[in-house]
Every structure is written in structure tokens, then in C-alpha cells.
Design brief:
By secondary structure, this protein is mainly α. The protein has a single domain, classed as MFS general substrate transporter like domains (Growth Hormone, Chain: A), CATH 1.20.1250. 79% of the residues lie in helices and 0% in strands. It is built from 18 helices and no strands. The relative contact order is 0.17.
């Protein structure tokens, strides 16, 4: 058997490669957990920005621009990658860009003079992180058999949440709560919070290595990069022109575009809301983040079995309905104890909404166009991603209330539920 055949034929049952693939979720989940959701986002609004309201708005603008860049480049590079064959080189490139940009967050001092500096590097890091997910997600249907896509996707998400939990825990113990932080960092200069960027960068690169060493990749097509770009752009153009031939995928991507706006906005501003409205300290915020990741990981793993049993569409609907109810409660409660009571169960449905979305795309994407369709999947998550932060920033600024801003998230969940009802269930 040729070397190519040796790598390609066993891919569906390559459990070692799939385990390494899942570990990449552990590696990269530290980025959104620590930097764009909890610690660094809250540090920016509370310590770097002039005030929390303007800081929330500025953060929203940066995330919006980052999302627009992903929306444009995701489908293009996904189509190009389908024509080069291999996905791991692209994944490595964007993983490194995200890590290097995260390292630069160390230079952001607690001073409004560093506002632009902070926003530039976090926006670039977030762009690279999201782009890496295009190529990472596209690997799944080539690795796992169709009847197990739900559980492997769910196990990956679950492992990712546990990875984020462990990373947050290490940061809490070694830096934030320590009287003398590791490496003798100076708390008066917020170094125990600024170190989160470099720490996450090292975490990502270290735990991403098994994927690059153990997980098989598609065989290279032999096309030059110029040929791949030409053919990829041509294929992408044809896909857009023939979207009526992919109605199932089209309705799903439209629905996901809306409800993912709500999820992304929740991730980007959840920590900011907790600090600004419920006055959580950084230590309390990290503890909440750890607990939230635990419930999210448990939810992703538990619903992974349901995904393969009742289908990803039903799992998504259950998750969105639950997120709407619990999220609505968090908008009206006043005490910290009730914030914890409704906030922690929220995590049980965040993971399944994401995991089932990935497995559904893996089921319906055409085999020869998987990276391109996961590029469109990224587009669906980012094309209107500016709407979530933009509406939240507008409502926060107009009503001078973080509660008013966060209310807009529920609308995205409800509209997404209505749209996904048009998506046919996955045939098994």
C-alpha cells in the first residue's frame, strides 16, 4: 500500500488522530475563555479604558472589525485550502499569528494611552483564532465516521471547555490570587492580568502540537499556490451562484448566522457584564469562569450522545430555547447570588449549541468542498457578527445601561430558533 493510502484509508477510525484533534480544542479554548470573554476583556474595560461604558463600546468596535475580516477571508481561504488539499499548514499559520498577537497583550499597561494598542492586538489575535477554526473544523468529517460526528464534535468542545477551566484555574492560583504572583510580577502595574496574553500563547502552542504530529491531513493536490488561489476563487464564485443547489446548507447557515451573533456577543461581553453590573472582582470573575466552563463542558459531552441519537437540529433548538430563558433571567436579577444561580446553568447549553452546529455542518457539507463550506460556516458566524456588538454598544450607550445592551442578545437567539425550523433534519 502506498504511503498516501496508508494515511487516507484508516482516517475514519483513527482514534489516536481524533484524540489529538480534540486536544486542539483544549489548546485554543484558553484564548476565548481567558482573553476575549473573562480576564483580558474585563481588564481592558476596567483598567485601560477611560470608563466601563466607553470601554465596552470600544471593545465592541474592535470585535466588529475583527469579525468582518473573518467573514471576508474565511470562505476565500477555505476554497483555496480545498484546492491545495492540506489544511494543517493553514492551521499552523493562524495558530502562530494568534499566539504572537496574544504575547503582545503583555505590553498593554493600565492607562488610556494604551487603548488603541490593546484593541489592535486583541483584534488581530481574534481574527487569527477564528481563521484557525475554519481549517480545524473542516478536518472533522474526514476523521470521524458520519454516525459518530456528533459525539466527536461534542467531546472536542467538552475537552475545550475543560482546557479553558484548567487554564483559568492556573491563572487564578499562580497570578491573580497570589500575594506574590509567579515570576515576581508587579500587581500595581497589573502585570498579574497582563501576563494572561503570553500565558495563553504558550498554552495554545504547547497543546496544539499533538494535532500536527499525530492527526492525518488530506493529501496535497500538487497545485501551486497561484493555481489554488485561482481555482479556489472560481469555485467559491460558482458556489455563491449555485446556492439554490444547497438549500439545506443555505437555511442552516442563515439560521446559524443569527444565533451565533448572540453567542459571540455573549462570549465577548459576558465578563464585562458580570464586572460592571454585578460588581464581581477579578478573582470572583475567574472563579465564575471556571464554574461556567465546567457546566459547559459537561453539557457538551452529555449532549454529544444526543446529537448522534436525535440529531443536531433538535439539540440546537433545545439549547437556544434554554439560553433564551436563562439569559432573560440574568437581565432582571439584581443580586450576585441570583447571578450565579442563573449564570452557571447557562453553560450547560452553550457547549451543545456550538458542538451540534459543527456536527450539522459536517453532515451536510459536500465532501469535495468541506473546507470551503466551513469557510462559509465561518462567514455565517461572522458576516453579521458586527450586528451583535454594534447593537449592544448602541443600546449600552443610548440607555447608559449594560443591562439594556445585553438584552439584544436574546433577540438573536429567538430569531435563530425561528429560522432553523426551516432546516431539514439530518438523515442518518
Amino acid at each position: 500500500m502506498t504511503d498516501t493510502g496508508r494515511w487516507f484509508l484508516p482516517m475514519a477510525e483513527n482514534d489516536r488522530g481524533l484524540a489529538a484533534w480534540c486536544l486542539y480544542d483544549w489548546a485554543n479554548s484558553a484564548f476565548p475563555t481567558v482573553l476575549t470573554t473573562f480576564v483580558f476583556a474585563a481588564y481592558f474595560t476596567k483598567n485601560v479604558a477611560a470608563d466601563e461604558v466607553s470601554g465596552t463600546s470600544q471593545w465592541g468596535v474592535a470585535m466588529t472589525l475583527s469579525a468582518l475580516a473573518v467573514a471576508v477571508m474565511g470562505p476565500i481561504l477555505g476554497a483555496v485550502a480545498d484546492n491545495t488539499g492540506r489544511r494543517k499548514p493553514w492551521l499552523a499559520l493562524f495558530t502562530l499569528i494568534a499566539a504572537l498577537s496574544a504575547i503582545m497583550l503583555w505590553t498593554v499597561k493600565p492607562d488610556p494611552a494604551f487603548i488603541f494598542h490593546a484593541l489592535f492586538w486583541i483584534a488581530l489575535a481574534n481574527f487569527a483564532f477564528e481563521m484557525s477554526m475554519v481549517f480545524y473544523n473542516a478536518m472533522l468529517p474526514d476523521l470521524a465516521p458520519a454516525e459518530k460526528l456528533g459525539r466527536w464534535s461534542g467531546w472536542g468542545w467538552g475537552l475545550g471547555y475543560i482546557g479553558g477551566l484548567v487554564c483559568l484555574g492556573v491563572i487564578l492560583i499562580a497570578f491573580v490570587q497570589a500575594d506574590i504572583p509567579l515570576f515576581g510580577l508587579n500587581k500595581s502595574a497589573a502585570e498579574e492580568l497582563r501576563i494572561t496574553g503570553p500565558f495563553v500563547a504558550v498554552w495554545m502552542v504547547t497543546f496544539a502540537l499533538p494535532l500536527f504530529l499525530l492527526t492525518p491531513d488530506k493529501t496535497a493536490t500538487g497545485k501551486t499556490i497561484s493555481e489554488a488561489i485561482r481555482d479556489g476563487l472560481s469555485a467559491l464564485s460558482q458556489t455563491f451562484q449555485q446556492l439554490n443547489n444547497y438549500k439545506e446548507a443555505g437555511w442552516f447557515l442563515l439560521a446559524r448566522m443569527i444565533y451565533t451573533d448572540g453567542l459571540n456577543t455573549l462570549f465577548a461581553f459576558g465578563g464585562i457584564y458580570a464586572v460592571g453590573t454585578f460588581n464581581l472582582t477579578f478573582e470572583e470573575l475567574i472563579i465564575f469562569g471556571i464554574a461556567m466552563n465546567l457546566t459547559a463542558g459537561l453539557g457538551a459531552v452529555a449532549f454529544a450522545w444526543l446529537d448522534d441519537w436525535i440529531g443536531p437540529k433538535v439539540v440546537i433548538l433545545i439549547s437556544l430555547a434554554s439560553l433564551s430563558v436563562l439569559g432573560g433571567a440574568l437581565l432582571v436579577v439584581q443580586s450576585q447570588s441570583l447571578f450565579w444561580a442563573f449564570g452557571l446553568p447557562l453553560g450547560l447549553f452553550v457547549g451543545p449549541a456550538q458542538s451540534a452546529s459543527r456536527s450539522m455542518m459536517a453532515h451536510i457539507a459536500p465532501k469535495s468542498m468541506r473546507t470551503e463550506f466551513f469557510g462559509l460556516y465561518a462567514l455565517s458566524g461572522k458576516a453579521t457578527a458586527f450586528l451583535g456588538p454594534a447593537f449592544l454598544a448602541w443600546a449600552t450607550s443610548t440607555f447608559e445601561s449594560q443591562r439594556a445592551g445585553m438584552t439584544t442578545i436574546i433577540v438573536f437567539f429567538l430569531v435563530g430558533m425561528v429560522l432553523i425550523m426551516r432546516v431539514p433534519a439530518v438523515n442518518r
